[in-house]
Write a structure and sequence with these properties.
With 126 residues, the chain is α+β, with helices and mostly antiparallel strands. It contains one helix and six strands; from the N terminus they run E-E-E-E-E-E-H.
């Protein structure tokens, strides 16, 4: 069984304007959707409850519906309709307001991430 990684916040600092967490989704018809969430602040966090040795990381904090959430590797599965189920959203990086303004960069990152995630799902089924 795989342990869920959770975070203990050690310290927070404000985020400069313009920073975003970038996510991708794939769909049944192989389209890629890129979405962003504004970084509210940065948090120095420590892993808790994971199978690995605790370590510290800097993670963004975003507004997720009606709560603040530490940016992780994926979010919940959404389903739009039965004909076009939307896969989980996967975190693909932080958008620095002074870099990566071109959408091709994020489309390429999304395609790589979705390929990896689909490979993991295929391995789990076997």
């Amino acid at each position: 069984m795989k342990a869920t990684k959770t975070w203990k916040i050690l310290q927070i600092v404000s985020a400069p304007a313009g920073w975003q967490a970038v996510y991708c989704q794939g769909s049944k018809n192989s389209q890629v959707k890129i979405s962003t969430r504004v970084i509210i602040c940065w948090a120095l966090v420590e892993t808790v409850g994971a199978d690995e040795v605790p370590r510290t990381e800097v993670r963004g904090v975003v507004q997720d519906s009606n709560r603040l959430t530490i940016v992780g590797n994926s979010t919940a599965v959404d389903r739009v309709t039965e004909d076009d189920p939307i896969e989980s959203q996967y975190f693909i990086g932080y958008n620095d307001p002074d870099a990566h303004k071109e959408s091709d960069y994020w489309i390429n990152q999304a395609q790589l991430r979705l390929k990896v995630e689909h490979g993991k799902i295929a391995e789990q089924k076997n």
